[in-house]
Amino acid sequence: GAGVSQSPRYKVTKRGQDVALRCDPISGHVSLYWYRQALGQGPEFLTYFNYEAQQDKSGLPNDRFSAERPEGSISTLTIQRTEQRDSAMYRCASSYGLAGDTGELFFGEGSRLTVL
Amino acid sequence: LAKTTQPISMDSYEGQEVNITCSHNNIATNDYITWYQQFPSQGPRFIIQGYKTKVTNEVASLFIPADRKSSTLSLPRVSLSDTAVYYCLFTGGGNKLTFGTGTQLKVEL
């Protein structure tokens, strides 16, 4: 596609429910990153992929968070048993080159998650 | 772990040149310095990247001294639309592309 697409743009859920956030990167982009951003803060690294391989998931807060990119394109970030502290903007970014190269990151519009 | 330090905020007026400095004492040999700009409710956007000396594009200039322990983003003749948060980070070193808290630039008339 023309840009990084994320869905849903807004998600309101009740505490304890599972949510899945989707990221469709720019076609042909090899690396894909997930970030979480709280209001007034910089993006917080969660995880990244080169192709379908998850290279680093050290930023995932706990085992309720998981991410996959099974075919090296679309990625899903899943949060199980959501808690109010999970409320944030979740941002996806992709890059043409491998993660760790110097390529420009292109960010999507983000998915705003609100847990009631 | 490589870390960057920037001022939390800066104020300027339209038409002035703004220089935002980022300190990075433990930058690695293969790290590049990259700056991103973020407007409210949008994702960060790439501005400029450099390794050493000076890089200039249509938006900004980036000055990196020989020891590479700091870098300065220079925005010429800012306008109100340059009000945003500016982040410096390392890229190219196989790291996680960690954003700090950034510098909130406010441009006034």
Number of strands of chain A: 11
Provide the gyration radius of chain A in Å: 13 Å
Q: Using only CA atoms, what is the Rg of chain B?
A: 13 Å
Oligomer: heterodimer
Cα end-to-end separation of chain B? 40 Å
Most extensive protein-chain contact, per-chain counts: A-B, 26 and 23 residues
Helix and strand arrangement:
The complex is a heterodimer of chains A (116) and B (109).
Chain A: E1 5-7, E2 10-13, E3 19-24, E4 31-37, E5 44-50, E6 53-56, E7 65-68, E8 75-79, E9 88-95, E10 106-107, E11 111-115
Parallel strand pairs in A: 2-11
Antiparallel strand pairs in A: 1-3, 3-8, 4-5, 4-9, 5-6, 7-8, 9-10, 9-11
Chain B: E1 9-13, E2 18-23, E3 32-38, E4 45-50, E5 53-56, E6 61-64, E7 70-75, E8 84-91, E9 103-108
Parallel strand pairs in B: 1-9
Antiparallel strand pairs in B: 2-7, 3-4, 3-8, 5-6, 6-7, 8-9
Brief overview:
The complex is a heterodimer of chains A (116) and B (109). Chain A is mainly beta and 116 residues long.
